Amino acid sequence: MTPPDAAACPVVALVSSGRHPVSGRPGRAREDARAVEMGLTLAGARLQLVHAGNAEEPVLRDYLGMYHGLDDAAAQGELALLPMTPADDAVLLLATWLAESGCRLVLAGQRAECGEGSGLLPYLLAERLGWTIVSGAATIERIDADRVTLLQVLPQGQRRRLEVSLPCLITVDTLAPPPRQSAFGPARRGRIQVVDGLTAEEDSASGEWRWQPARARPKRLKIVKSGNARDRFRAAAARSSAGGQVLTDLTPEQAADRLIAYLREEKILSEEKILGDEMP
Amino acid sequence: MLQTLLPILIFAALIVGAIGAARRIRLWRQGQRTPVGWARILHMPKRYLNDLHHIVARDKAMAHTHVATAGGFVAAMALAIVVHGFGWRNPILGGLLLAASAVMFVGALAVNRRRIHPRARPFPEKLSKGPWQRLSRSLLAYSVGMFLVSLPLVGIGPVAFGGGVLAIVLLTLVAWGVLELVVGMGWGGPMKHAFAGSLHLAFHRRPERFDDRQAHAGSTNTHDAHRGSRSTALFPLDLTAPKLGVEKPADFQWNQLLGFDACVQCGRCQAVCPAFAAGQPLNPKKLIQDMVVGMAGGSDTGYAGAGYPGIEIGKHQGAPEQAIVPQLVEAETLWACTTCRACVEECPMLIEHVDAIVDMRRFLTLEKGETPEKGAVAIDNLIATDNPGGLDNASRLDWAADLELPRIQTRPEGVDVLLWLGDGAFDMRNQRTLRALVQILRAGGVDFAVLGDEERDSGDVARRLGDEATFQRLAERNIITLSRYRFQRIVTVDPHSFHVLGREYPDFGGKYRVLHHSTFIAELFDAGRLTIRPAERKETVTYHDPCYLGRYNGEFAAPRRILEALGIEIAEMERSGFRSRCCGGGGGAALSDVPADLPGRARIPDMRMEDARATGATTVAVACPQCTAMLEGVVEPRPQIKDLAELVADALVTPASAEPEASVAVSSPSREEEPA
Amino acid sequence: MNVRRIDPYAERIRRNRLHPRHQEFARPAWRWAGPNGVTRIDPHAIGALGPNGIRRIDRSGAVVETQPLASSPIESGPSRRMVVIDDPAGFVMVVPECPEGRLSDHDRDLFGLARQLADGQTLAVTAVTFQGAVAGLEEAGADRWIDLSATVDGDTHDPESRLAALVSVEAAMSPRHWLFADSFPGGGDLGRRLAARLSRSSSHGANARAATRVWQVAEGLALSRAGDRQDIQRELPRILLALPECAKPVSETRHEARLVSIDAAGSKTSDMTAVGVVDLGRVAVDPQQIPLSQAPFILSGGRGVGDWAGFHHAAEVLGASEGASRVAVDDGNMPRARQVGATGTFVFASCYIAVGISGAVQHLQGIAKCQRVVAINRDPGCDMVKRADLALIADGDAVLAAVCERLGQPRAAEPSEAVSEAGSGALSKEERYHDAA
Fold first, then answer.
1. Can you tell me the ipTM of this complex?
2. Top-level CATH class of A11-194?
3. How far, rounded to the nearest angstrom, does the alpha carbon of residue C294 sit from its chain's CA centroid?
4. Is the pLDDT of residue B261 over 90?
5. pLDDT surpasses 70 at A241
């Protein structure tokens, strides 16, 4: 095995086979594709892809098809393939390969779309390599010699800026910029290098598991619990917004005051935010 | 003096012109090699006089002008070589030469009359100025000069012609004319269209388009009739080639380059292009000229016609070995095309604009991954779910849950008609059309079945967007599916599926008899298998010809026959039949993200609806799910949009017996029972 | 078409079982015991005819709609049974998310799952929080409570020191199970970190691997969702990362949530040396860039809005994402992507202000999960007013203009000024907000 030169391979993206949500057909995994997109914007054609699994997986070409629109027009994608069976443990293989590759930044999706799909792999890898790990990246803003500044996705469309020390492993959220199209030409030209000399070990933890087709989760019914029938009836018959407050005969100014007061009360409008907005 | 100078002038012009021609040929040879037989050059005169002439003759005045000018020039030039060049001063030949020059003069006057109009009417927008204005004067100069120079041959005119200012003036006139008409032909002046055009006719990439390739050649004499076959299938792309699609001008086939050079800039394509009319950044004429610029190298500053709306002329330049997009042509221009083929149909030089556009799109999609966003989503969906909407393919028959459509899987013995639903099966509007068609098929006692969820998209959108890989995958899978079942023919409501299944699958080994539902219903009428209640009230109906049914496949008659059978008189739109204007939904243009709401732009369906309104129609009959969707998207109030199948189903008299099987036998007697 | 008419007289007789003609009018029973004791159901007799003559059958099990947050305190306080576990056989640790310092529904489900694991084995459910004052742990079902707010700063994102604190808890208590909420970047992240750390230090054999996306625990087996439409059933592992609605929240008992102190000081100092992740704080996001389905605060306009420029301005002043009713979109006042409702986007905002929206059924379905709804409408009788937590009966345009004025940013009256301001606004907006798309 020949580990890529550290200077030539600063960024690595882990890719896996995805499953289309409607048809279940193999394709690029949504998060992995975003990780590759992020890697391509960061490192251009120097982004190296890695996959541990079936060497005949056709989907891998779809990732290689993303190597276009880069500074180096003739660039080809390169993917290192670590062969193993689905029953093997990918952590060990990837950790060995990454340790020897000399890369310092690894991008991956948060969770695989097939197999166990637990999202544990990046954490186990980081733990084994002793690297920092950050989940749910939306954008990488800057890379210095030893630190990465990125934005992390928070619920409700919010973002948080984090500074992470290298070497690190960053998992990418579905809200990261959408991946570029996978083009047929570059996909055909990209190189898949099968890495020999690594022996995969069977994943001991998953031995006893029982796999079954996913069942639809039962919908939770709103259950009114109460000691007596009268209360249950009242709870069931009551209007949902019993506490709704209706204010009539207001001038627009009064209404505005009430609205602002309500929003402040519920901490949706804060004083400082308004002040902040007033700043030029 | 004249007798010594004229031969020198003529032979020098011929030699210089020939050198120019050789250089021009070198330019074409930059293209990819396609083997063609040299014997094909023999086809040229007939193709010129027959195919080309009839297209030109759609504009009568222009045809006469061209016959006079071109015929006069060819004759005058040939005679001048004999008379003045070789000095065979025969009075009869001289008389012929005078006559030819006179005819040419008349033609040249007509050319000038069309082009030089200070106030009476504006200069026609479709024409180019610049060298083309000069050409009209050059024609005059040559004809006048040659006429006067040849007068002494028949004994008229000053005998002492040998000297003086007059001789120099005449010589200058002739020299001007010869320079433009002979030297310019080889060196890339406006007259190169004659040289390149005649070779283009001989070595055309789609020889099937010409009359001489048809068994029934020369059967019709009207100019509007389509000669030759409708060779409209896109050329398959070899997916193992080192480069997919056309990146640089040199990536075109050599005879495509030759075709571009044949352009006369008559602007007929521009006049019929729906995207140009809508103010979108496409002009077929400019595109072909840009290809010429790319082939010869240089910038588009010399172009003197209308440009791409919204894109300035003179900012782009090209070279044979330089990428076309975006240095020479903006990607937007390529994506604005609806592949409606109106330009190809109208081009007197039979240039293939759509092939060129799709070739360049193929490179953008397959090599650069730069399909417009919505188009890329559609392609991804096609790859993952076999339909462009990304819907579960198993739900393809959900709309027909109550119709109990027979599945072909349960009919191993085979059926007569395989009903190809197309992707309209996912669209609620089109489901109404499909229901109407099923009703008609049942009323007509047709033995039909559907593929159900085994049907996939035909690949039309993917192919027009340039994704040949996805198209070929879909085509191969569909062909494998179809090979498992037995049926006589395929009927579909979607002209795009109709075109792709019928015309483009044969290249991949799928040969089927495919009928559009309009053809099939017309057949049912002809066979007397449908009983119709005549329309109660007269309403004005107009019919919109879908591009992929009409121009692509030549089916103009069947829809009109159906409407006639329904007792409807069609109020034809100004642009109908082979000149029908596109609805704007074809060729992936609806997925192209070229914004329609910029100032100065219109939506193509809105323009088409204006055409329909002008007829006073209250109903627009359509025959394509895409057209239905586009035209129904026009803001109300507007005429209602009804598919032919819906119109027929509305007028259908259902036989009293409920069983559809019985209707075959009953249909003709019941016709008599029904009160008229 | 026949119009179905209701005879109020007949209805009254039908309701009154003592009426002499009741038998004549009564509807046939839809369910009865057959001669062999088998229950018979007449499907035609179920349900009631709706106003359009279409039969409606309600099998939802209840009529109660979602309750707005403001009016949904747990009312059955006094009726809960107190449960005290003095001498537990072990611990089940629950690390709740506590967004904004409050227990979320997901957290309560987590405690419900913990109780399911603990009950019967007299294990103590122990809440581990990084924020000091978390209310409602008693009702949620925590027997013990470890408050790590002294060790870890609960307000900043510092997964490494949190992990260190959890590791020290692990060392001190060696609990049977750890429960996290499987959501990024909160419990899903922290739980996986702990799982990765523990996977190295100890070997637990078959149940060493954490179970993620657990959605059901039954008979000692955890059912977790895997990729490719598969579920994995396995023995209960030590660490479980559970999805929302993994179990029913505790509703009948009350627990003591006794504070337990852990000496986690050592871990704090040891990890100060190498900080991998530094929280630089929240980034202001342009509300218009947030996908509507995620927006926390939406100002939505309908037919009652006349002054759309004023509406946009108000949205900017309030810092709200813009939404619209179907009518507003159809009229071309708002883009299709901004349409709220069952035919547009389902929204989950914590505050939804509906201006001039009467509240079509589809729209109300679309906002069913919003926590607070404010309606500004001139019609006090419309459905939106009935749904709202606060309804202001007034002209929407005028109220929004007054709001902007009250907040010190009235809209420029003159068009030229408005244009220039819009220009500068757009510019400053670019500077101020990070592109969230």
1. 0.85
2. alpha beta
3. 12
4. yes
5. no
Model confidence at C420: pLDDT above 50 = no
Q: What's the gap in Å between the CA of A66 and the closest CA on chain C?
A: 21
**Nearest alpha-carbon partner for B338 in B270, B266, B286, B282:** B282
Where in the sequence is the domain holding B563, given as residue range(s)?
541-651
Say how many CA atoms lie within 13 Å of B192 toward its Cβ.
Answer: 24
CATH code, domain carrying B398:
3.40.50
Mutation choice for C interface testing from A41, A120, A247 by most C CBs within 10 A: A120
* Residue B222 pLDDT class (50, 70, 90 cuts): low
- Determine the distance in angstroms separating the CA of B427 from the nearest CA of chain A, rounded to an integer: 18
A89 close contact with C: CB closer than 8 A: no
Q: Which chain A residues have a beta carbon less than 8 Å from that of B465?
A: none
Residue pLDDT, tens place only, A127-166:
999 999 999 999 999 888 888 999 999 887 888 999 999 8
pLDDT in tens, C32-63: 666 677 777 777 666 666 656 666 676 654 43
* Contact across the interface for B366 and A184, Cβ inside 8 Å: yes
- Please report, in angstroms and rounded to a whole number, the separation of the first and last CA atoms in chain C: 51
Distance from CA of B239 to the nearest CA of A (A): 9
Q: How far apart are CA C398 and CA A20, in angstroms?
A: 49
Residue B450 to chain A, least CA–CA distance (Å): 21
Query: Do the chains contact at A257 and C406, CB–CB below 8 Å?
Result: yes
Number of compact structural domains in chain C:
3
Answer yes or no: do B379 and A65 touch at CB < 8 A.
no
For the sheet with B415-420, list strands across it: B448-450, B415-420, B487-492, B514-516
Residue B646 is encoded by which pair of tokens?
A: 């819906």
If you average pLDDT over each of A6-10, C340-344, C412-416, which comes out highest? C340-344
Q: For position B483, what pLDDT does the model report?
A: 94
* Mean pLDDT rounded to a whole number for chain B: 88
Q: What is the dihedral of CA C208, C214, C216, C221, to 10 degrees?
A: -10
3-state SS assignment for residue B148: helix
Q: Which range of residues forms the domain containing residue C298?
A: 287-432
Beta-carbon count within 10 A of C122 CB: 13
A216-220, B139-143, B362-366, B624-628: range with lowest mean pLDDT: A216-220
Whether residue B442 contacts residue B667, with contact meaning beta carbons closer than 8 Å, is answered with no
**Average pLDDT of the residues in A94-121:** 91
Q: Between residues 390 and 429 of chain B, which touch chain A (CB distance below 8 Å)?
A: 390-393
Q: What is the dihedral of CA C265, C270, C272, C275, to 10 degrees?
A: -120
Residue B259 lies in a domain: no
Overall average pLDDT of the C288-295 stretch: 85
Mutation target to probe the A interface, by most A beta carbons within 10 A, among C182, C233, C273, C283 is: C283
Which A positions 1-30 lie with beta carbon below 8 A of chain C? Answer: 19, 24
Q: Return the amino acid letter for C378.
A: R
Q: Do both C99 and C172 map to the same domain? A: yes
Of residues A221, B509, A270, the one with CA closest to residue C297: A270
pLDDT value for B214:
60
Place of tokens 């792999």: A121
Task: Kindly give the interhelix angle for B373-385 and B468-483, rounded to the nearest 10 degrees.
Answer: 30
CATH number, domain of C240, equals 3.40.50.620
Name B144's Cβ contacts closer than 8 Å, sequence gap at least 6.
B101, B105, B173
DSSP string, B126-140: TS--THHHHHHHHHH
Nearest to C407 among A164, A243, A260 (CB): A260
Residue numbers in A near B390 (CB within 8 A): 22
B554 and B509 part of one domain: no
Provide the 10 A C-beta neighbour count for residue B427.
Answer: 18
Query: Which tokens in the block code for residue A14?
Result: 């882990």
